[in-house]
Please model this.
Amino acid sequence: MMSLKRPRVALFVTCLVDLFRPTVGFAAIKLLEAAGCAVEVPRLQTCCGQPAFNSGDSETARALARSVVGAFEGYDYVVAPSGSCGGMIKKHFPELFEHEPGWRARAEALAAKTFELVSFLVDVRKLDRVSARFSGTVTYHDSCSGLRELGVKEQPRRLLASVEGLRLVEHADAETCCGFGGTFCVKYPEISTHMVAEKCAQAAKTGAGHLLAGDLGCLLNMAGRMRREGRAVSVRHVAEVLADMAEGPGLGEAAGRWSP
Model:
């Protein structure tokens, strides 16, 4: 049973959501408010620094981490609709300040109250169902950071099971990387292309009309491949479905939308 107290939750929107799919941010707010949270979006938030961190630019990553810590540490929780950004804050921010005890302590305190969106709803707010409808068959991709760094696996499936009209069909490579991997797709484009092609082929084999995931980087990568291959599979963030905000075109379907 949820506490009567309304925790102050800061939404870490993420760069990709802000730039390419703001609907995911609004869906996250709707879900958090329905779970009894008072949601705020700190205006001073920046990139979490993962691209710099992945590229070995620790100085830039630390500068961005300091900015994020300063903007978010005053809240009860920090929630991101992304296992990738959530994992960066929760797992890697403390590593950046190995030789700065004061900043490390602040980073660890922030890490302790940072969660991926669906994990927060299920594990912290104890949500076991949502009031949503979605007509169709879906398959689900487990994003690497959410799965391996944050343990997000069962939580989205539990909430999807409560969506009226939705049928989930698992595909063979649900836990296999899609090939996006932050800067991996830029460093190793041929390997990345092979990985996403295999991922999309396995998802299409299920016959599902919709491919869902919890990380926009993965979703943009898979949506772009699906579009180039002419596959009639709609790609969406799981938050859009859970918040009953999945009307309109999926990623890669709208004219003029960017997709890799």
